[in-house]
Specification:
The complex is a heterodimer of chains A (about 120) and B (about 110). Helix content of chain A is about 0%, strand content about 50%. Chain A is an all-beta fold and about 120 residues long. The mean pLDDT of chain B is about 95. Classes of the chains: A mainly beta (about 120), B mainly beta (about 110).
């Protein structure tokens, strides 16, 4: 079984400051990893994903994340926060070796990011 | 290319009524997933369907919940005899195949009074 832990349900940063949202996973196999963003009353938008290859993944809106197998982590970062980054962020994993059924996503409980002026 | 469409966006039902949530996948996508997001929680997988087939319903409550994805028309998530605990946001996602990225719709927010 897979699980995802997002440390910090609420994170506040000042505009222009570094954004760091933490994600740790538990999986019996190297998983596929995802970060999604959800704006109020909207669906989820994929920010970035890691499947194979380079462990530093760049996504949209200046976000990036690094897969660290030894730490079972996939933290999301952005060098300089913008007011428009205020949203809820979800880390998710899927099992790339699942057979038969879909690669269902297992989500963390989310981190609400507030950007202060 | 329109994205994943869900309707209604908001649905209010009294306890004991039925709720029907609809999901139209992106054009060319034949794989549909339903997730439920309870307040203050992440999304939880419910069911995965392909056209006319339920492939994985391991996340569906055993009673009152059902899903279908007919050959023609949208996928339907049906909740019979709703209870207050069913109040949540229900998201649909679609993909062209099971290995590809899932694209999410805007969700249906169900409120049971």
């Amino acid at each position: 079984a897979q699980s995802v832990t997002q440390l910090g349900s609420h994170v506040s940063v000042s505009e222009g400051a570094l954004v760091l949202l933490r994600c740790n996973y538990s999986s019996s196999v190297p998983p596929y990893l995802f970060w999604y963003v959800q704006y109020p009353n909207q669906g989820l938008q994929l920010l970035l994903k890691y499947t194979t290859g380079a462990t530093l993944v760049k996504g949209i809106n200046g976000f990036e994340a690094e897969f660290k197998k030894s730490e079972t982590s996939f933290h999301l970062t952005k060098p300089s926060a913008h007011m428009s980054d205020a949203a809820e962020y979800f880390c998710a994993v899927s099992d790339p070796f699942s057979s038969g059924s879909a690669r269902q996503l297992t989500f963390g409980s989310g981190t609400q990011l507030t950007v202060l002026p | 290319n329109a994205g994943v469409m869900q309707n209604p966006r908001h649905l209010v039902r009294r306890r004991g009524q039925e709720a029907r949530l609809r999901c139209s996948p992106m054009k060319g996508h034949s794989h549909v997933y339903w997730y439920r997001q309870l307040p203050e929680e992440g999304l939880k997988f419910m069911v995965y369907l392909q056209k006319e087939n339920i492939i994985d319903e391991s996340g569906m409550p055993k009673e009152r919940f059902s899903a279908e994805f007919p050959k023609e028309g949208p996928s339907i998530l049906r909740i019979q005899q709703v209870v207050r605990g069913d109040s949540a946001a229900y998201f649909c996602a679609s993909s062209p195949d099971k290995a590809s990225e899932q694209y999410f719709g805007p969700g249906t927010r169900l409120t049971v009074t």
